[in-house]
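Please produce the structure of this protein holding adenosine-5'-diphosphate.
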Amino acid sequence: MIHITCLNKFFGQHHVLKNIDLTIEQGKVFVIIGPSGSGKSTLLRCINYLETYSDGEITIDGKPMGRKLIKGQSVEIPASELNQARQDVGMVFQSFNLFPHKTVLQNITMAPQSLKGMSAAEAEALAMQLLKKVGLEEKAHVLPYNLSGGQKQRVAIARALAMQPKVMLFDEPTSALDPEMVGEVLQVMKQLAKEGMTMVIVTHEMRFAKDAADQVLVLDNGIIIERDKPDKIFVNPTHPRTKEFLSKVL
Ligand code: ADP
Ligand code: MG
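Below is the modeled complex.
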């Protein structure tokens, strides 16, 4: 579903992602862990070309996302093609980024109407179905400031799902939440995983990673130093840097 080939990303002179090659199969849950500054957010943002990169190729379900390799050369794709491809990718951030002056329902129905040409009725029906999925049907007509952090994040997930993406990316979705609200968001994510969504998740919730991940990927200094099943990574990591990192967070 996601294919990353020879991805290199620089911020000025700083080589932030180094020759990343990665394939993520449909329906799999990948959790990315690693020290702060190792490039986790940048990698996630490159997947939908929110962050441009200079070298390599990323495809989602076969469609290039930002750049494609032509005879070994990485070439940027046209904006129209990028915008089309981006519709297949939902992203959820640490900060929920809901539109404050729109109701919960409007937050969810806007993009499907403007980008997918859904009718208002269709978009609303879909939004209500998604609100039910995240347990917030009764909040459809309130403004975001009436919601707790956990509820806002569940709305943000519903909003991303409203575009009917093939892939969902999560960048520390629970890091801004009070501890008692972390569980409700992780629960929604587990449900999504169970339904077969392809997910890439940056998180510090190691329990969640153990329970929900098909694969855990350890990023260190822009390099994937280890990639394996959670049982292996958490119980018997091979790389000394993984051991060091886990000793600090577990
Ligand atoms: P992580 O999410 O693992 O904490 P990031 O992907 O945010 O790491 O950052 C990786 C590296 O890139 C860090 O050294 C960070 O300082 C640098 N970086 C991130 N964003 C920018 C930016 N917009 N401009 C310059 N450097 C950046
Ligand atoms: Mg980050």
